[in-house]
Amino acid sequence: MTDAQRVEIEYCTQCRWLPRAAWLAQELLTTFEAELTELALRPGTGGVFVVRVGDEVVWDRREQGFPEPTAVKKAVRDRVAPGKTLGHSER
Predict the structure, then answer these.
(1) Labelling 52: which of 4, 64, 67, 91 has CA 20 to 30 A away?
(2) Residue range 50-82, pLDDT digits in tens
(3) Nearest of 90, 73, 91 to residue 30 by alpha carbon
(4) Burial of 80 (0-12, 13-18, 19+ CB in 10 A)
(5) What is the overall mean pLDDT for the chain?
(6) Are strands 6-12 and 38-44 parallel, antiparallel or unpaired?
(7) CB of 55 closer than 8 Å to CB of 3
(8) How far apart are CA 24 and CA 27, in angstroms?
């Protein structure tokens, strides 16, 4: 297993962002069911909401705000399945 196929969503437990993280995880697992080997939800604190592919941060709420699922899907796709179409999400 390569880390590039592992996605981690770190979310703030103090902010109660588990439902948002779980929903995004579901979206990613549905879209990349054949490409991802693991998707982890990592509890954090201090307002964190970060999406990583392997060790690379692809979305950070502090810098980019809360992500739209399509934006995160594109960032993940570019790293784990370049060339994969996202269908209607890409329009």
Answers:
(1) 91
(2) 999 999 999 999 999 998 899 999 999 999 999
(3) 73
(4) buried
(5) 92
(6) parallel
(7) yes
(8) 5
